[in-house]
Amino acid sequence: MKTIPTPWTGLPLQELYNAAAAAALPKYRARQYAEAVYKHGAQSWNDITTWPKSLRSTMSTHAPLISLTPLHTAVSQNSPVVKYLWKLHDGATTESVVIGNQRTTFCISTQVGCPVQCRFCASGIRGFQRNLETHEIVEQVLIMSAQHAHPDNIVIMGMGEPFLNYDNLMQALSMLNDPVLFNLGARRITVSTSGIIEGIYQFAQHPKQFNLAVSLHTVDDALRSELVPIARQNPLKKLKTALYEYQRLTKRRITIEYVLLNEINDSPEQAEALSTFFDDLSININLIPYNACSSLPYTAPKASVVSAFLYHLKKNNINVTLRKEQGSDIAAACGQLKQRYS
Fold this sequence. Notes:
CATH architecture of the largest domain: Alpha-Beta Barrel
CATH topology of the largest domain: TIM Barrel
CATH superfamily of the largest domain: Aldolase class I
Structural class: alpha/beta
Strand content: 15-25%
Strand order of the largest sheet: 1-2-3-4-7-8-9-10-11-12
Order of helices and strands: HHHEEEEEEHEHEHEHHEHEHEH
Number of strands: 12
């Protein structure tokens, strides 16, 4: 038998067929693989019971079907949240979160560490190590789906800046959307960026109807540059222009993620400025009280401050959702579990 290219979990459907052909396998074997892995949650070659034992044994000698290893799993006691710390093939680690209640959402990562280094986020504390490969993005979903349930939604809001790993990200999303593979609708997948303007323009051209979220946190350029250093290269005026172009091309509503930090970006004046910033853009603002990290000097506002901020947005007829805090007992915010256990 010829050398088998691996990992197959990083191959779109046509490349999967090509890999089977290169291994002197008929096309239907690739279909059986896809059915076992993406529909039935196979986690090892031996789980593909439609294959003969000899073929499963041969495949097992080349590489494991799944390359990620759960290094630590944390289950919240006060909310339906489970967080995973993954060990990658080179010993690096990254994170994912399952949020389950009436609907199940997977929050997945695209990088090891984060080059954006938002001042209030634990993801970048140890710096940026590398991009995740396509198979490492997909495998987060495959493992959690096998252990929980097929997700209702996937959000790319874990460790890393997705648009700085654009090609691997989009190949992974195309595979997760493919009806022969994972078969999750494009409108159930959201990509969150810290405001990488070039990435937004590129994303706007993509034919699939994936959703866009932008982590903004303030509409003051100076404060934003302080909180999110990469904002210096992606100023608000240019970011706003990119969002208009995205909406013109896609006709899709944009989610604005706004983390509320005590006495930093939570005043009524800042709420008023946020209300008027987007003009006639179709947006929904997702307010997120800060999930504190012990190694960072930030805290969440008091409930009364959050309520006042919410009031000012609603008064101005802004579509806004207040996110309920979940998973604080298991360090569920981005980067916290990695910092604690690796």
